[in-house]
Amino acid sequence: MLALPIVVRCALWGTRWLGGQGDLDDVVGNVHAGAATDIAGRFEATLRDWAERGETAVFLALPRPGLLTGMPRAPLAVTAAATEAGQAAYAPTVGGALVPTLNRFGPEGDTGVLATWAAYEKAHAEVRAADDVGDWDGAVVLATDAAKGPRTSFAAFEKASASALDGFLSALSADVRAPITGARGTALALLGLGLVGSGLATRGMSRRLEEYR
Questions:
Q1: What's the pTM value of the predicted model, to 2 decimals?
Q2: Residue 11 · residue 17 · CB < 8 Å
Q3: 139-176 pLDDT, tens per residue?
Q4: How far is C-alpha 16 from the geometric centre of its chain's CA atoms?
Q5: Are 129 and 142 in contact (CB under 8 A)?
Q6: How far is CA 194 from each of CA 33, 77, 190, 202, rounded to the nearest angstrom?
Q7: CB-neighbour burial class of residue 76 (10 A; exposed 0-12, middle 13-18, buried 19+)
Q8: Under 8 Å between Cβ of 91 and 50
Q9: Measured between alpha carbons, how far is 99 from 5 in angstroms, rounded to an integer?
Q10: What is the CA radius of gyration of the chain?
Q11: What is the end-to-end Cα distance of the chain in Å, rounded?
Q12: Residue 97: which of 106, 87, 112, 108 has the closest Cα?
């Protein structure tokens, strides 16, 4: 049986609770059942804060390098963390995001899984607030961490993306990697032919221009 990403459970049970069904203990238990033995971070506190601020749903994102599926407007630090983890849960109305990381611990034969939830509340909310009032330049600055300098911000995103991409590729089986390698070789060959064709076309156009002079 394929296990659901933990943020899928978070979205399902969190939205149910925000709609007035069950209690927060149910959410914590059902989200982590079979996935984690220990919990750290501000998971419960963040959900409670979202509820107090009037949130009615929990959305999810499953981003990958080059494919930020479902990610909301957010600072690069949030996007980078979510891309590295491959998942995130967020509050679409009031703003805020939760990014989980799962780490196995303990000696062989007696291991557990620690789910650590990093909460990004203020940063996400600030971007959304600026965007909602039409301060799009301000939203861009907040989203790209321009005050810290683009080099620092994009370096963090690049590092997280590279780490996530390495993990994704390492999970591929050998029989899947072979076609990928072949496809890359074909792509490079086509690129080379394209460049040659472009060069010949440019040379031909130059000659025609000389004829018209």
A1: 0.59
A2: no
A3: 565 555 544 444 444 455 455 545 555 554 555 444 44
A4: 24
A5: no
A6: 54, 38, 6, 12
A7: buried
A8: yes
A9: 12
A10: 23
A11: 73
A12: 87
